[in-house]
Amino acid sequence: MSSFTEAVVLQVGISVLLALGYWIAVSTGKYSFGHTAFMAIGAYTASILTLNFSWPLPLAMLASGAAAAVAGALIGWMALRLSMLYLAIITFIFSQLVNLLISQWEYVGGASGMIGMTGTTVPLVLGCVLIVVAYLVLLSRSRLGLAYKAIREDERAATASGLRITRIAVGAFATSAAVTGVAGALSAHQLMVINPELFGPRQALLIILYCVLGGVEYFWGAALGAVALSLLPIYFDWLNEWYEIVYGLLFVALMIVRPQGLIGRRGGGRIRLPRIPAGRERESVG
Amino acid sequence: MLAQQLFNGLLLGATFCLVALGFNLVVGAMDRLNFALGETAMVSAVLGALIMTETPVPFPVAFAAATAIGGGVAVAVYYLSFRFVSADFPTASILSSLGCGLVLTAVVTKAFGSHQRSVPDVLSGVRLDLGVLTVSGAQLVILLLATLLTAGLYLFLERTPWGTAIRAVSDDATMAGLLGVPVQRVILLTFALSGVLAGAAGLLTGLAYHSISPFDGFTTTLTALMIIVLGGLGSVTGGVVAALVIGLIQTLTVAYLSATLRDLIVFILVGIVLLVRPQGLFGRNAGVLERV
């Protein structure tokens, strides 16, 4: 395998991992607008452990997954009880907070970041992708996967069916954060350099776009979106220059034409329910 | 010294308040967030500054142009990201407007460069000396225009038929439609108003700092979102109070502690409010919006 092919495979693999991680949260209908925060937490945790404590990378990846999961559970617990719009705002603010803290923290190099991480190999990345895919296959056949779907389709009906939706959604959010954290760790050890700027709003949008382009209904839709979007800039150089405009317009066009993504049924089989008047809503939150 | 800082903080808060009001208007009308509003403010400010430096027109004309540009951009964003985007996908409009914001920033940097642009001073000869604090001409203009716009918006919403229609749609769009309110046009008006407010805020903030950068749009959105969380989603009073509070905190932190702590303290405050009072200081109920 030439070093170019290897770099491409690594990048695509990490993007797929990011998309799959994000999909876990989305499969409960909870869109985060700051998943880069978990990526940053994972990247920095792993980098600190491998550089300053000379841990082996796989062990550091586990730790970064755990750290991201804790952060995910915390932010999920704060935000998932509230409405969709609040979740969007809070995750967005959270990613900025993490970014700010990292760029102020001298121990991890502040704004200039950390340098010298190595060790991401093709088997390692593909192994992680395989593990996550296996988990998602099992999940989609399990009762938990069904519960995720129920929450996505209708929270009130899910509560009425006896699901503890907040607990389940927080669990999904933490799992999602963990996968994203591991992807961040892998990404850091592939890039060899990390700084707060890498985990800015541009990356956050990219993760969402991977997932939304492919379609949020099936996890392999998200994975395909990630493959397509990470291969395109590699083979079309001009895309890098017009990156923001092309991706921005892609978002706009996609949301008008196929908001459910390229793969998936119209409306995801969702039945529209009449709106329940304000004020009676809180009882259904559980 | 303290009086001067308090005044500066209130001034900053007054400009924040305009953008936050713009966000809240849209949330009221459609229960959706327009994430491109910060970039709308940036576009207006950059073009407004260009008009001020490149043409001999007086400031009021440039200001009017900036607000008109803001309104126009917001209407364009409405058609691209809201009008034809299905309401079945609650995140679709957020993603789409984020995309619009991305495009706006990229277009401005490609057309006018990514450098900081200086905003010329207005009324530079005027200087009010009130003993404990001095007020410059520009500050006077900012204070005056921000107050006028906020008061004007309040009167418009409370005292005019179109304002009543906006409040009716915000309350219950279906019911308003059944009673003969032209809902689509009211929503369009709301977007235009939010753009005008954002455009005004953009140029006034530029005036306060004497400079504007094409990357300010993102910061503006972030600050407005924190104000909204603090004040309560959709609450006008909450928005005004929270904007002033955040403006004061930011200014006082920079003056007495350190510039690096500025955002951190606001983040912590927002976090505490979310934990203790998730609906915000003036929000009625965090579950009021349709849960999805």
From TrEMBL, chain A:
What topology does it adopt in the membrane? Answer: Multi-pass membrane protein
Transmembrane segment boundaries: 7-25, 31-52, 59-78, 84-102, 114-138, 207-236, 242-263
* Protein location: Cell membrane
Task: Name the Pfam families on file.
Answer: BPD_transp_2 (PF02653)
Q: Which GO terms describe its cellular component?
A: plasma membrane
Q: Which UniProt keywords apply?
A: Cell membrane, Membrane, Transmembrane, Transmembrane helix
| Record-linked InterPro entries | ABC_transp_permease, LivM-like
Q: Where is the signal peptide?
A: none
Q: Please give the Gene Ontology molecular function terms for this protein.
A: branched-chain amino acid transmembrane transporter activity
Would you say which domain of life the source belongs to? Answer: Bacteria
Question: What name does the UniProt record give this protein?
Answer: Branched-chain amino acid ABC transporter permease
This chain's source organism reads Actinomadura darangshiensis
From TrEMBL, chain B:
- Mode of membrane association: Multi-pass membrane protein
User: Keyword Zinc on this protein?
Assistant: no
Taxonomic lineage of the native organism: Bacteria, Bacillati, Actinomycetota, Actinomycetes, Streptosporangiales
Q: What is this protein called?
A: Branched-chain amino acid ABC transporter permease
The regions listed as transmembrane in this protein's record are: 6-26, 59-80, 92-112, 132-157, 186-212, 224-257, 264-282
CDD domains reported in the protein's UniProt record: TM_PBP1_LivH_like
| One BP annotation, GO | amino acid transport
Question: What are the entry keywords?
Answer: Amino-acid transport, Cell membrane, Membrane, Transmembrane, Transmembrane helix, Transport
Which cellular components does GO assign to this protein?
plasma membrane
Q: Where in the cell is it found?
A: Cell membrane
InterPro entries in the record = ABC_transp_permease, BCAA_transport_permease
Asked whether the keyword Cell membrane is assigned, the reply is yes
**What family name appears in the similarity comment?**
Belongs to the binding-protein-dependent transport system permease family. LivHM subfamily.
